[in-house]
Amino acid sequence: MKATIYIITFTLGILFVGTSCEKHSEPITATLTLLEPQAGDTVMAGEALHMHGTVVGSGELHGYSLTLTNLTTNQVVFSGSNATHQTSYAFDEHWVNMEGATSNMKLSLIVNLDHEGNTTTKSVEFVAGN
Amino acid sequence: MKFMNMFGIVLWTFSAWSCDVCGGVSGNASIGLLASTQFHTIGIKSSLNTYRSYLNGIVHSREYIAQGEVIARWQPHARWQISANIPYQVGRQKRDLGSDFIQGLGDPRILVNHVLVHHKDSNQATRNFLSLGLGIKAPWGRRAPTSSMIRNLYPSTGAWNFSTVLLFTKRLTEHVSLQQEGIYTYKMRDASGYRYGNTYSYAFTVVWNKSLGIGRLLVGPGLQLERFGASTEDGLPVSGYNNQGFVFESQVSVNYLSYNWLWGLNVIQPLQQNFNQGSMKQGIRVSCTLSYLITKNSKK
User: Predicted ipTM?
Assistant: First the structure.
């Protein structure tokens, strides 16, 4: 009986160590896709902008954030974040252009690969027309 | 308890989706399980519909549509029934980065049903029943502004709908009957020129009834296929997501009739679906109904 317990404990230990090692052997990567907007798009005043995209990780990701910045005024006009741990994300947000003047805009998607501050980013620039 | 003898009483599941996340599923106006009663009815119905929206196979939002309805049916003549309902809808879309919450009155609906065939046996129990109904849904509920990105979350589609409902019920044994229901809904365009595609549905239900306690239990398991046409804008096909597709569902209704009260629970579970290029999936739908049956004054 004791021998059996030793064997089971040893096997579980090996499995645990093996899994742990594997977890750290390859860094997590993520593929970021911004479907909308496209670079150079123009969103006229009063029109809605679709912010549409996906994130697919090679393993568990640690959240992401989406930030829309008016580069002309240097103001953040939209931001949101999701801290849940998932292997993939999709977002479908919208923002209505109420800027009042033609502005250069930048949408940034930042994905947290771990909790040590490693991130990957994708951005797209477009124009908010008036 | 005379009405307990009626085999094939109405199990009132008058569906009234004034609007829905699926965009245009609203067309169907099911009469429910056999409309062969001799009573006026008034009641309330609560329902919850759930959906998930996908982008490249990844969930990006979850939608919850809750409705409360006042439903009524008036039976002016043995062969004519007029039913109406007014829904109030609460819709919520939960996304990764935010949520939207829209509530308001939905589109009222009226359905005039004519009984074409009603065969009864010596006990006055229904053997065969065939009816044809015509329904109208008026766009008087709260509708989305033209620029809205979440128009499907609003209680009203903003357009008139016209439905045709053909219902046939056949009694198989003392306790079992078979019901088939076909519905076609033609949808008009809204003020902005957007038009949801027409819908078709076919439902097949086995109705089992048994006297239980102080009332009668009616259970109706069945299958349902709903098909949705493509949306158009100013008469031209909508490119990309156009709300076209189908949903094949299983459903079960459990009802209990006691004195003049009819309690009902209906659960619908999609089995297979392909809607809007797979960008949306309908989840389970649950509804509860409580109706009061008003006995007609007999004319002798």
Answer: 0.73
